[in-house]
Amino acid sequence: MARSVIVTCAPTGGIHTPTMSPHLPVTPEEIATAAIEAAAAGAAIIHLHARNPETGQPDPRPELFQEFMPKISASCDAVLNVSTGGGLGMTREERLRAAVATSPEMASLNVGSLNFGIFPMLEKYTQWKHDWEPAFLEMTRDFVFKNTFADLEYVVKELGQGHGTKFEFECYDLGHLYNLAWLVDQGWVEPPFFVQMVFGVLGGVGADLDNLLHMHTIAEKLFGDAYEWSVLAAGRHQMSFATQAAMLGGNLRVGMEDSLFIGPGELTPSNAAQVRKIRTIVESLGHTLATPGEARERLALKGADRVTF
Q: Which GO molecular function, any one, fits this protein according to its record (predicted)?
């Protein structure tokens, strides 16, 4: 019998800017509302970033996370997953601050360095809500998203071993799967592993179905029955790749971190709308959505009673 599908929702992220959508959650209240609504729609895991409530700029301050994480946990049972990717250009220590302060059940971990180009989005807009937005996008023309082996060791020891937090291992390319296998070989992380395969970011693996199938094949060889796999794809590829993941027996991620749209040329009015859309697709394929409790059991999480928010 096919297992239920774990749906992750990433409500705001650190990539899109306020000019790009009036629906992008920015303030702690907006992020909390978006997360609670996504959980009610069927998301078992909520992947969280914070933003400066005045400018919408990605912001690593733990006090901002503490403004919305307690509200979310008080209103739903979803697993709260704190980003350690933060915002492009942040230092390793800045990226880790919120997760160390909140000691969540889950945190993301980008498992390799890559060129991370979002500068092509500059061409789509001529006026901006905030001065920081075009400079932020342009910066990525000459930017490497740094996740060295030293960085990986630091994070898994500081957060994983130090706090009992499990990771959403974000793999943007084939080599990142082997980086994760290296971490496993060192004995620094324990199964089950949650592998998030990321497609369609400029600088990472392209959103081509052959790439998804190959990465899944390699992950099966490397991790066998010791892992859960999930798929996210950027922009217009979001729903099609999420559907493919469900069809192949995997899990999936949606949310406005990955795409601001719900259909061709149509901005999504909310994160919950994306969750409801993929839920309809998943259920039409004969699958069910995993509850937060099922996700906790399958991923061997420490439990919501062992966090500090």
A: 3-keto-5-aminohexanoate cleavage activity
Task: State how far the Cα of 192 lies from the Cα of 225, in Å rounded to an integer.
Answer: 8
- The tokens for 1 are 């019998």
pLDDT in tens, 107-146: 999 999 999 999 999 999 999 999 999 999 999 999 999 9
Q: What's the rounded Cα separation, in Å, for the pair 80 and 183? A: 24
Query: Which two tokens mark 241?
Result: 């790749």
With CA atoms as reference, report the closest residue to 258 among 273, 243, 277, 271.
271
Please state, in angstroms and rounded to a whole number, the distance separating the CA atoms of residues 104 and 69.
Answer: 10
Helices (H) and strands (E) in the chain, counts: 11, 12
For the domain bounded by 7-306, which CATH number is listed?
Answer: 3.20.20.70
DSSP characters over 56-105:
--B---HHHHHHHHHHHHHH--PEEEE-SS-STT--HHHHHHHHHHH--S
pTM assigned to the model: 0.97
CA atoms within 13 A on the CB side of 233: 19
Residue 154, burial from CB neighbour count under 10 angstroms (0-12, 13-18, 19+): middle
Parallel, antiparallel, or unpaired: how do β-strands 251-254 and 227-233 relate?
parallel
